[in-house]
Structures are given as structure tokens and as C-alpha cells.
Amino acid sequence: MLKQQAVLHDSFGRRHDYIRISVTDKCNLRCVYCMPEEGLPFFPDERVLSCAEIIQMVKNFARMGIKKVRLTGGEPLMRSDIIEIIKGISAITEIDDISMTTNGLALPKMAKRLYQAGLNRLNISLDTFDKKRYKEITRGGNLDRLLKGIDTASQLPFKKIKINTVIINGQNDHEIADFLKYTFDHDVNLRFIEFMPIQQDERWKKQYRGLDAIFNACQTNHWIYEPIRLDGNGPSENYKIGGAKGSFGLIHPISCNFCESCNRLRITADGYIKSCLYWDDEENIRAAIFDFDSFREKIQHALAIKPKNHEMALLNQEQVKNKKPTWRHMSQIGG
Ligand code: SAM
Ligand code: SF4
After folding, report:
1. From the annotation, which residues make up the binding site for [4Fe-4S] cluster?
2. Is residue 1 part of a domain?
3. What is the pTM of this model?
4. Residues 168-206: tens digit of each pLDDT
5. Residue 255 lies in a domain
């Protein structure tokens, strides 16, 4: 049993009990909102945290009061030792929730082993119900395989599955009613996510669409929805349409900034801590993983400099003085 330390707070009093670990920057897709079309040079293997380092890092965090861990990427299921990583984390008794964000393509083969290794929840990305469009948005993905992955995972006793849907103006926003209908007969929490300007060029302004479109679709279809509370749901606001098995959520960091309730720290695959998704502040913590006191110092420093908020809503990023947005693409952070 690890000795429990006080819970982590930043300088604005926000409590931190949640870490997101990107276990790889590699991915088998190149989604339009995440990676450039030509791809990115992936980190060489030796630059990426090993399984032993990830497990020791989570033990350190558990000593500092962290209870929830999300594994992300790149695509976390591209790591050949992902089962070993999950087993190692699941053996840490202070961690009470292990989740993963995945593009779902490997779930038909891997869902059962993930569950057996101790994974508690899955967030699966699904941006369209149209095969051709899925291939375009993901630059190569196979929708049938993804839907089979969701189906396979749904038959296992994971906690409620979440579906992540990034709304892209002109590409999938006309499917909003179809996504809402999907919640009628699927017991999932479908989260509409605003397209965030992380390493995006000017085209982003045209591709961004605010999430008021979701409520408009409910009204047009005369669907009555009510707010609901879901456990451990972080920044999303959740609703259920009358009679639906599932629910829907809105994650709108741009139109409705939720930084005041941010409870997360992010660790990149190459061992940097990022206290905010947006800004370029980051510090390498890899060398400190096996030295708890210096590890704790680095985490406390990251929290001390955690900014109050991001500035994604500033369409002209040059307006932001003295601070630079991150150099990383989303696949190099983890979402
Ligand atoms: N490969 C996994 C996946 O796609 O689910 C995990 C990594 S991905 C970076 C994590 C989440 O970030 C996904 O749900 C993805 O849709 C979302 N994401 C990526 N780029 C984004 C952007 N620019 N704006 C909003 N969400 C984004
Ligand atoms: Fe890969 Fe996920 Fe990024 Fe798509 S969103 S390119 S699946 S890391």
C-alpha cells in the first residue's frame, strides 16, 4: 500500500485528481482535426516512456492523491505492451478508475483483453455514420471495423461507453440529428466536441462550429431533452432525450470555457507534463520518475504555473501577448 499524500491543488485552488497519459504519439489514422495530411515524424522508441516508467509514474501520482487515469495517444492500442501497462496500473490500489480514449479500430480484437486487464471505461471516437466520409475525415479509416469495435466493447461489462464526436462545420454537422438518434437505442454517452485550434491554420475558423447546433436539432425534431448528471464526467454538460437509452454531452471549450473546473494534468508520450492543453508550458519529468521527491517537486511546479485559462476563443492568436500556444499537435498531447 502506498502512503497517501495530500490532494494536489493549483494556484487557483483547482483540485487535481485526474491524469491523462499519452502512451504513444503513433497513430494508424490522420484525422483532419488532429494531424497534418502528410503525417508527423513519430518520436523514436527510446524517446517514449517505457511500460515500467509509466507504471512507476502512476504510483508516484497515486501517492499524491491522483485517483483517475486516462490512457490516450496517438492511438493507445498501437502499443504492443498496452495490456501490461493496464495490468500494472490496475494493481495500484489507490487508482479507482482507468479509462482509455481510442479510435476503436483495434477493439474487435482487443476489447476483451483490455477489460480483463483491468480497464474500466472506454471513450471511442466516431465522427460520422457515412463510410466514405469516415475515410475522408480519418484519412483512411474503415467505419465497419469501428462500428464492430463499438459493438464488441458494448457487450462487455465496461462502465458506460462514451462516444467522442468532433463537430466539423461542413463535414459532419448535417449528421447531428443522426448522432442524437443513435442515443435512442444505444446506451452510450455521446459527447459532441468543439473543434479546437491546436496547431490549426486559418482554415480552422471555417471548420469550427459552435454546439448550439445540437439544441437546434432537438428543437427542429421536437425532441424533449433534460439535463442529467453523470459520474466522473469532467467538463461535459449532459442531457437525455425523453425515452432514449443513452445520453448526449457537450464539450465546448471555445464557446463556453470551462477552465475554472479543470482537474487534469497531461503527460505526453515523451515524458513531459502539461498542465494546460493549449499553452506551450511543459516540463520533462522522465528523469525524476524513480526519485519521488524530485518528481513531486516537478509536479508541484507544473501546478504552480498552471494558467488560469486557455485562449482558444481568440481567433487571432497574435493577440495573445507573452505566451505561446503549444508546438504540439493533438496526437502528441492526447486530447
Ligand atoms: N487516437 C485516439 C482517438 O482518436 O480517440 C486518442 C487520441 S485523440 C488525440 C483524443 C481525442 O481528441 C479524440 O476523441 C479526438 O477526436 C480528439 N481531438 C483530436 N484533435 C482534436 C481537435 N482539434 N479538436 C477537438 N478534439 C480533437
Ligand atoms: Fe489518431 Fe486519434 Fe488523432 Fe485521429 S484523433 S489522428 S485517431 S490520435
Report:
1. 27, 31, 34, 259, 262, 276
2. no
3. 0.94
4. 999 999 999 999 999 999 999 999 999 998 988 888 889
5. yes
